[in-house]
Structures are given as structure tokens and as C-alpha cells.
Design goal:
Blueprint: E1 2-6, H1 27-36, H2 40-45, H3 49-53, H4 55-75, E2 82-85, H5 89-96, H6 102-122, E3 126-131, H7 135-145, E4 149-156, E5 159-164, H8 166-178, E6 183-186, H9 199-210, E7 221-222, E8 229-230, H10 236-243, H11 250-259, E9 264-268, H12 273-281, E10 286-290, H13 293-298
Parallel strand pairs: 1-2, 1-9, 2-7, 9-10
Antiparallel strand pairs: 3-5, 3-6, 4-5, 7-8
Helix pairs in contact: 1-4, 1-6, 4-5, 4-6, 5-6, 6-9, 7-8, 9-10
Length: about 300
């Protein structure tokens, strides 16, 4: 079974749209710009790292590039039998299976990025990756700080992200090292995403979701919140709202995709982080990243 996965915020990099400007799928950038009345092309071509690090810019840029790559893959005649997206990438996955229209997807992503940036300004926070500990030990490190820090991403075996108050994240990281973590790495972000620090963003996002139309889909999307496969339109508003303040269960998502008989997983968009996680979480599955026209040209459906 062919599965598409979609990366989230953090996969962006300056000039990531440049390889696509002469490709027919680049036309989606103009469509995205029209949908949200912003110059999305500049984000993909000329924005520097500081500009792209801003949540309102990073999310819109990553989503749009994933849509460009997805369109190019579709032109190749490939379609997924399952999908999942990491955090922001869940919106890309919903568009990919027809559960959400492109225009609604762009508008929701723009609203989400704005809401999360404002929430981060209200409650400044940070995130850090903990390598070499299981998720239970990371939760123990968070609890031992007796402060505002939580597990935000359970990404892969031995790869967990914690988030919260900057001081609390530092303290939890020190405890994690004492518990045997091989490494603790801070992220250059200004928000504690997927924690209660994002609570104020939920009401903003829920209003935007209420103005969008969702559809049932034949192809399932495995959700971040519960790592379960969903096909029904009515389930997504609550799942997307809850996602803002809930951990991303990516390790469990990989397991669910495996139980659905995934044999090939293609990461659609910038970066390649999810491809590495797939190789670790589903060692018997063919995994490849597609972020450039050359990558798409190399794709073939595994037998």
C-alpha cells in the first residue's frame, strides 16, 4: 500500500521553491496567494531564514510547497491508499485525500499559523528534542520539574520532543540527561506547540474551521491526536482543534500505517525528517522523500 506523509513546520528552508518555478505545478502558488491575499511565492523564493522561522510564514510556505509536490506526483499518476501528516502536515494530508479543498486548506493553514504565533507571543515557550529516552522517561523528566513542560511529539523510538516554559524545558532536559538521554537539543522556535500554551489559539482556529467544508474520504488519514485512521468528515473539526494542545503521536501513527499494510511511504514536501522516522519506525517499508522535481521523477510504485 502506498502512503503519503507530509512534513510540518521546521522543514522550511530559504529558496525551497526555486526548483519548481518552471514546473507546471508551480501554478498552485498563485492560487494559494489569491486564497489568502499574500505573496506566497516570495516566501518560497526570497524569504530569509529569520522570515521563514516566523510561524505565520513557515506554516504557509511548508503547506504550499507540499501542495506543489503533491500535484506533481498526481501528474505522474500516483495516488495514496493512506496518508498522515506531522502537525501542520495533517492539513496537507486532508487535501491529498479530498477531505478538505485546496482553498479551504490554504485559508485554514494561514489562520492556524497566525493563531499559533499570537499564542506564542502571549505565552512564550520553547521546544527541545530528547534523544535516547523512551516517552515514559521523558514524561517522568517533565513531571519531576514540577513546572510547565510536557511531551509535545512522540516521534520515533528514542526521539521525543518536550515543550513548555523555557526554564522548565531546560530543567527537564537536565533531568532527561540524568535518566540516560544521549542528547538534548533545543529548537529555534518561539512557541511551545502541542501543549496547553496553545490554548488561546484553539478558539481562533475553531472559528476558521467552522467556515470550511470537510468531506468523507475513501482514503484514510491517520490523525496526530489518536493515531487512528479516520475517513468521516464530521470527525476532523474536533481532531484539528485538539491537535493544537495535544502531543503528536507520530510513533504510534507509523505503527498504525504499518497495521494498514503500508509497503511504500513517500514524504511529500520539503526536508526529509519524516523519511528518516519511517525507516526507524517501519524498517520493512520502502521510504523516500519527494521535495524536488528530480525526486518526483525518481518515484516508482513498489510492487
Amino acid at each position: 500500500m502506498l502512503v503519503f506523509t507530509f512534513p510540518g513546520q521546521g522543514s522550511q528552508r530559504p529558496g525551497m521553491g526555486a526548483p519548481w518555478v518552471d514546473h507546471p505545478s508551480w501554478e498552485l502558488v498563485a492560487a494559494a496567494s489569491t486564497a489568502v491575499d499574500r505573496d506566497v511565492a516570495s516566501l518560497l523564493l526570497t524569504a530569509d531564514q529569520d522570515e521563514l522561522t516566523q510561524t505565520r510564514n513557515a506554516q504557509l510556505a511548508c503547506f504550499t510547497l507540499s501542495m506543489v509536490v503533491l500535484d506533481a506526483i498526481r501528474r505522474k499518476g500516483m495516488a495514496p491508499a493512506g496518508a498522515a501528516g506531522h502537525s501542520l502536515g495533517e492539513y496537507s494530508a486532508l487535501v491529498a485525500v479530498g477531505a478538505l479543498g485546496f482553498d479551504d486548506g490554504v485559508r485554514l493553514v494561514a489562520e492556524r499559523g497566525e493563531a499559533m504565533q499570537l499564542a506564542a507571543q502571549e505565552r512564550p515557550g520553547t521546544m527541545a528534542a530528547v534523544l535516547g529516552l523512551d516517552v515514559e522517561q521523558c514524561w517522568a523528566a517533565c513531571h519531576q520539574t514540577d513546572a510547565e513542560v510536557w511531551v509535545a511529539n512522540d516521534n520515533a523510538p528514542g526521539q521525543v520532543v518536550i515543550a513548555g516554559d523555557p526554564g522548565a524545558v531546560t530543567s527537564a532536559g537536565e533531568i532527561a540527561r540524568q535518566l540516560g538521554a544521549k542528547r538534548v537539543m533545543g529548537f529555534p522556535v518561539g512557541g511551545a506547540f502541542h501543549t496547553p500554551f496553545m490554548t488561546s489559539a484553539r478558539s481562533h482556529l475553531e472559528k476558521a474551521i467552522a467556515g470550511c467544508s470537510f468531506s468523507d474520504s475513501e482514503v484514510p488519514v491517520v490523525a496526530n491526536v489518536d493515531a487512528a485512521a479516520h475517513r468521516m468528515a464530521g470527525e476532523w473539526p474536533a481532531l484539528l482543534s485538539a491537535q493544537l494542545t495535544s502531543p503528536v503521536l507520530w510513533r504510534q501513527t507509523m505503527s498504525e500505517l504499518g497495521s494498514l499494510d503500508a509497503t511504500q511511504v513517500v514524504e511529500v514536501g520539503a526536508g526529509g525528517v519524516l523519511t528518516g522516522m519511517t525507516k526507524r519506525g517501519l524498517p520493512g517499508v520502502t521510504a523516500a522523500g519527494a521535495g524536488t522535481p528530480e525526486d518526483v521523477d525518481k518515484l516508482t510504485v513498489a510492487g
